[in-house]
Design brief:
By secondary structure, the chain is of the alpha+beta class. It has a domain at 15-63. Helix content is 42%, strand content 13%. The protein contains 4 helices and 3 strands. It has helices at residues 18-25, 29-37, 55-64, 68-73; strands at 15-16, 45-47, 50-54. The chain has a 3-stranded antiparallel β-sheet. A hairpin with a 2-residue loop joins strand 2 (45-47) and strand 3.
């Protein structure tokens, strides 16, 4: 008797496409490309010819982005 694998419909996949990864972190695909280019977001993994982004790596990179308060503290009032 073969077991049938059932995946819950609310399960978030570990590997995300470029568009899904951009949506996951809350930016447009073109902005996501910029973030990957300047290494604020991780490089994709390869599955054959397909590029996928690891959701856990996206979480870690997102955690490293500055928050509004740290961004404001770097603004020089004299500028």
């Amino acid at each position: 008797m073969s077991a049938k694998l059932s995946i819950h419909t609310s399960l978030v996949p570990r590997g995300l496409s470029r568009v899904a990864a951009a949506t996951y972190v809350g930016v447009s695909p073109s902005k996501f490309d910029e973030l990957v280019q300047d290494r604020r977001m991780p490089q994709p993994r390869r599955i054959d010819a397909r590029k996928v982004w690891d959701r856990f790596e996206l979480d870690a990179a997102f955690d490293e982005l500055p928050n509004q308060l740290s961004t404001l503290s770097t603004i020089n009032d004299w500028d």
